[in-house]
Amino acid sequence: MKPYLRSMSQQLTRQQLIDVAEKFGTPVYVYHAEKIAEQYNKLKTAFAKSDVKIFYACKALTNINILKYVRSIGASIDCSSINEVKLALHAGFDSPNILYTSNGIAFEEIEEAQSLGVHINIDSLSNLEKFGKKFGHSYPVGIRLRPNILAGGNLKISTGHDKSKFGIPVDQVDKIIALVEKHDLFIRDLHIHTGSEITDVDVFVKGIEVLFDIIPLFKELEFIDLGGGFKVPYKEDDSETDITLLAQKVKEAFDNHPNPNGKPLQVWFEPGKFIVSEAGYFITRANVVKETSATTFVSVNSGFSHLIRPMFYNSYHRIENISRPNGEEKKYSVVGNICETDTFAWDRQLNEVQEGDYLVFYNAGAYGFEMSSNYNSRFKPAEVLVKDGVAHLIRKRDEFDRLLANQVEVL
Ligand code: LLP
After folding, report:
1. 162 with 148: CB under 8 angstroms?
2. Structural domains in the chain plus CATH codes
């Protein structure tokens, strides 16, 4: 099958997807291990000339098998909650390869992360103060800064701008330095994450320039963490982050600004989408085809409870009718079966859909299953990993008992 996107040299075939749907039922998320490796290797190749370490931002997809696979191909891991840290440990990552970039968390959680030996980026002055009081110079720590740069696919996924809750605003650097001096903090890295789906590599360069202004103030720095946010294409001719150009610009920037306080700084990145988005497929089945005067609807056996991105971020996911790839093209609105508006795609050209056909959503690996819920008391989908051509069930579909599992019946 011809890859539908230039970046898709590793792609599951329609037949493989149909086989998974037949064997494991739908709705089902399917992940392609070799595609994950391909994406990780693209980064390794692009950044080969610099001292760069890649941390997979596991908030995109935390199935334990994905974490184990990502570890097996050599990546480190970035976590956004203490439970992700524990999953990472469970998957076999060593604590020095686990990064916990927290935001807005209670100090108790930071203490727990410290006790697990992972590297922590702190994002508030108050937690930095508490950390300093308790650990002083004894435990190296990082600071998450807000660079005051607006970038990213849409406002909901932009995190570095001057109204964002994330990080300590870079204009408060005097206060940071005062705390560092007061508690003799060992600041090991400075971190920024400007947003998700950043296509303009100069945004990263701007971020680095903001950091260069303050790097001289931190004498014990060992690395700079530039976060994630690389964009992958979601449709034909869609924009994407030019990783090779980015690598070149990052190298130039650091070559031109040697660390005034000692050894060269290692650069860290935390990509999520880039690593797993294209490796994921979400297969649904057409329940109902409904013709109305204005629109023909296809209702699939899913909803925003399974894939929230189109409704939440207005994001585009390519959809294909894999049951009837040569059918006549018609326009459909693809909707779910949730009891409120849950449109996946408006007026989309698809090969003719008949009830029972399998419709696949592409680029479903990142923030797909991970953001799913049991809304309307629907079951969460199953998950399948295809590795070396073999399909493995890696999460069972919910069963009815699960809906009652944590409820306490008092009446
Ligand atoms: N590092 C930090 C500190 C982050 O906050 C994020 C994403 C990442 C790394 C990874 O970003 P990525 O490379 O995946 O763009 N649910 C949204 C995306 C939210 C991203 C939140 N933070 C979506 O489906 O588009």
Report:
1. yes
2. 33-272 (3.20.20.10), 277-404 (2.40.37.10)
Instruction: Check: CB of residue 348 under 8 Å from CB of residue 331.
Output: yes
The catalytically annotated residue of 339, 390, 408, 410 is 339
* Contacting residues for 13 by C-beta, under 8 A, at least 6 apart: 1
Ligand 1 atom, smallest distance to 231 CA:
15
Cβ–Cβ < 8 Å for 274, 365? no
Distance CA 231, CA 366 (A): 11
State both tokens at 326.
């040569």
Q: Which residues of the chain have pLDDT under 70?
A: 1-9, 150-154
Render 318-329 in DSSP notation, one character per residue: -EEETT-TTSPE
Atom of ligand 1 nearest to the CA of 271: 13
Q: What angle do CA 310, 42, 119 make, to 5 degrees?
A: 80
Distance separating alpha carbons of residues 62 and 245, to the nearest angstrom: 29
Does 157 sit in the ligand 1 pocket, CB within 6 Å?
yes
Give the type of residue at 358: Y
Q: State how far the Cα of 349 lies from the Cα of 222, in Å rounded to an integer.
A: 51
Spatial contact of 39 and 8, defined as CB atoms under 8 Å apart: no
C-alpha–C-alpha distance, residues 357 and 323, integer Å: 5
Active site residue 58: no
pLDDT of res. 163? 79
Residue 158: beta bridge partners? 195
Q: What is the pLDDT of residue 67?
A: 98
Q: Would you list the DSSP string of 148-172?
A: ----SSSGGGB-SSTT-SSSEEGGG
Is pTM beyond 0.85? Reply is: yes
First vs last C-alpha separation in the chain: 57
User: What is the amino acid identity at position 168?
Assistant: I
- CB atoms closer than 10 angstroms to residue 200: 14
